[in-house]
Amino acid sequence: MFDSHAHYDDKQFDEDRDILIPSLFEQGVKGFLNASSDIASSYASLALAHKYENVYAAVGIHPHEAAEVSEDWLNELDKLSSDKKAVAIGEIGLDYHYDFSPRDIQMKVFEAQMAFAEKKNMPVVIHDREAHGDTLAVIDKFPNVKGVLHSFSGSYEMAEYLVRKGWYISFSGSVTFKTAEKLRHAVTAVPIDRVMCETDAPYLTPVPLRGKRNDSVKMRHTVEKLAEIYCISFEEMAEICLNNAYSLFGIVK
Asked: Taking the CB of residue 207, how many other CB atoms lie within 10 A of it?
């Protein structure tokens, strides 16, 4: 399994990070992408990526942190993204659920990072919560930028539209939730060569482990649910998601 979106720099892992991460690789996890939320976490993601061979980093500004960027944040991002273990810009996007940053500032920072990704010819990892229309409008504005919608929460029609435009769709533990029938229907709009799997660890722990801190081993339950939907084996599903992540992020093994 390859976890295409995790946050092992999160404080929830502070007490056991150095024990947990090596143990993941002993339990069927081939690697993971550590996504960032601001400049500080981008540096932390890269530090993890350099410590472990099979760890990679996405660097960028999360919509929650958009209002806190410094004047030279794009210069910092340029330096971070030039690192050999930085394989994507992210996570970036819009969050209209919490609105921790004003929506106009979220949009400004999102569009700036899309333009930056286009300039750097790098894929993006997009966070979209209750902002589907505006997220799609920005994606349409930058047709040369490709990437993945992480922890997808949109409709069948939205997934179908994104796939036609060359995007990948990543599903987290939420696809296992009892109330997620519409999300499981959206999975069927995604061709097997465009689907990815993630944890968003330490969040979104899949059924039947709800209430526990999430980690990449627990992604097994998400992969199993996707395999059930696609009518293939667990092993096939895990390999497909791994290969799709490697393809998008340019990981050569």
From this structure: 15
Direct distance between the N- and C-terminal alpha carbons of the chain, in angstroms, rounded to an integer: 14
Cβ 245 vs Cβ 196: under 8 Å: yes
Question: Distance (Å, rounded) from C-alpha 55 to C-alpha 20?
Answer: 13
Residues in the chain: 253
Q: CA-to-CA distance for 171 and 222, rounded, in angstroms?
A: 8
What is the value of pTM for the model shown? 0.96
Fold (topology level) of 2-249: TIM Barrel (3.20.20)
Burial of 204 (0-12, 13-18, 19+ CB in 10 A): buried
Q: Provide the 8-state DSSP code for 34.
A: E
Please state, in angstroms and as integers, the Cα–Cα distance from residue 206 to each residue in 132, 201, 213, following that order: 23, 10, 10
Q: What would the pLDDT profile of 168-186 be if each residue is shown by its tens digit?
A: 999 999 999 999 999 999 9
Tell me how far the alpha carbon of residue 88 is from its chain's centroid: 10
Helices of type H across the chain? 17-24, 39-51, 73-81, 103-120, 132-141, 156-164, 181-187, 220-230, 234-249
* Model confidence pLDDT, tens digit, residues 122-136: 999 999 999 999 999
Q: How many CB atoms lie within 10 A of CB 247?
A: 14
Q: Which residues contact 108 (CB under 8 A, 6 or more apart)?
A: 66
